[in-house]
Specification:
Largest sheet: 9 strands, mixed
Number of strands: 15
CATH class of the largest domain: Alpha Beta
Strand content: 15-25%
Strand order of the largest sheet: 14-13-12-11-7-10-9-8-15
Shape: globular
Helix content: 25-40%
Distance between the termini: 20 Å
CATH architecture of the largest domain: 2-Layer Sandwich
CATH superfamily of the largest domain: Dihydrodipicolinate Reductase, domain 2
Number of helices: 12
Order of helices and strands: EHEHEHEHEHEHEHHHEEEEEEEHHEH
Structural class: alpha/beta
């Protein structure tokens, strides 16, 4: 992008996108300027947050097409519910602007393949995917270690994301409680993780199966409703009042088994009601094993022969750093990408691949079978010939 300024328009001004704007302004002041937004709620939580950090949200528009035609923006930030992403990305692509969209980019196979077609037409470098954990310092260190060959041949990975009760309760009351809006819990919350481990393993999933359901956030546990921390996280658009008798249809626990094309296996577990929250991983290689936890901020490497811990690194973050220190690093990389043309560590095609993996895992959970992805990737590849995509 020529010059040293970037005019931002926002579609769906929730807290996630508002925090990204704050990091962008911190990185490249005064390069980024919010000039317009559209949201079903004019005074949304994101608007309140921007004003609290001294950033005006710009002119309010009642719809995206009106915003695009009247505000002359350079960058469109999409933070709306997942099911609307593809339609809104298409509007931005047709308007000729650069786009950042929160994960997941698509909520089902049809949307995935539609977006691949759009990227082939308009260019994959037009869309930035909001897979923020790709920028986390711990993940970057882990990637460097694996790429060095010091882990040896990877055989298996055990990983999890365990959410604290207040986060799970929020999901049961927020718009994210509906599969029709999210594409499912695993896609909404854990597509980050599936993307990370696919990147580490270096191969696509070949077969998947899954088990899960709802056992904690159910009416029989409604006696917990009045106690903290179940209402400590406020909900916004389309929010509900009840936690344990929620009208949502997402699961509150799920396990997935993935066999990758190179023979590596992943066991992934997520649960929405875990008091000792964690986001951990354990990679087993022929020369070493690596374990880490994004929530507890440690990365440890163990030598396979001696069993000794040969590296032990801690990370220091607070709430302002966001997502284990990744938010600011993502903002810096986006800035360098927009103003200097530098490549990003994750592409829109990568994001669609991770999303489609989550979609297939959920289908396996519902069908009770093992699903092969060979035909899926053949169709995916036929549509994914996008020039200019990052890697």
């Amino acid at each position: 992008m020529p010059g040293n300024s970037c005019r931002i328009g926002i579609c769906g001004l929730g807290k996630r996108v508002a925090h990204l704007v704050g990091f962008l302004r911190r990185v490249e002041e005064p390069g980024f300027e919010v000039v317009a937004y559209t949201d079903p709620i004019q005074d949304s939580q994101g608007v309140d947050y921007l004003r609290s950090i001294g950033i005006a949200p710009g002119v309010f528009f009642t719809g995206l097409e009106e915003l695009l035609s009247e505000s002359n923006i350079d960058l469109l930030l999409i933070g709306s519910p997942n099911v609307f992403h593809v339609e809104q990305i298409e509007c931005g692509l047709r308007a000729g602007v650069k786009i950042f969209a929160e994960k997941p980019l698509a909520t089902d196979e049809a949307q995935t393949f539609r977006l691949l077609e759009l990227l082939r037409i308009h260019g994959g470098d037009r869309l930035i995917a909001g897979l923020v954990l790709r920028y986390a310092p711990m993940y970057r260190d882990l990637s460097r270690f694996v790429e060095s060959g010091a882990l040896g041949v990877i055989s298996s990975v055990e990983a999890s994301e365990h959410l604290p009760p207040e986060h799970g309760a929020f999901l049961m009351r927020d718009w994210r409680r509906y599969e029709s809006l999210t594409g499912g819990y695993l896609l909404e919350k854990c597509v980050h993780d599936l993307d990370l481990y696919r990147g580490i393993v270096g191969a696509r999933p070949a077969r998947v199966c899954s088990f899960g359901g709802r056992r904690t956030f159910v009416p029989s546990q409604e006696h917990l409703e009045t106690s903290n921390p179940y209402h400590s996280w406020p909900v916004g658009w389309n929010g509900g009042g009840r936690t344990f008798s929620s009208d949502g249809d997402i699961v509150d626990h799920q396990m997935a088994l993935v066999e990758y094309e190179n023979g590596v296996c992943l066991c992934f577990h997520s649960n929405l009601h875990v008091p000792n929250k964690s986001r951990r991983f354990h990679l087993i290689g022929s020369l070493a094993a690596v374990e880490g936890d994004f929530e507890r901020n440690y990365l440890r490497i163990f030598d396979a022969k001696s069993g000794e811990c040969i590296a032990d690194k801690s990370y220091v973050f607070n709430a302002e750093h966001g997502h284990y220190g990744s938010e600011e690093l993502m903002a810096r990389d986006i800035s360098a990408h927009i103003f200097q043309g530098r490549p990003l560590p994750v592409s829109a095609v990568d994001a669609l691949e991770a999303g489609l993996t989550a979609i297939k895992i959920d289908r396996a959970r519902k069908s009770g079978g093992v699903i092969s992805l060979a035909d899926t990737w053949s169709k995916f590849d036929a549509l994914a010939g996008v020039e200019g995509e990052t890697s």
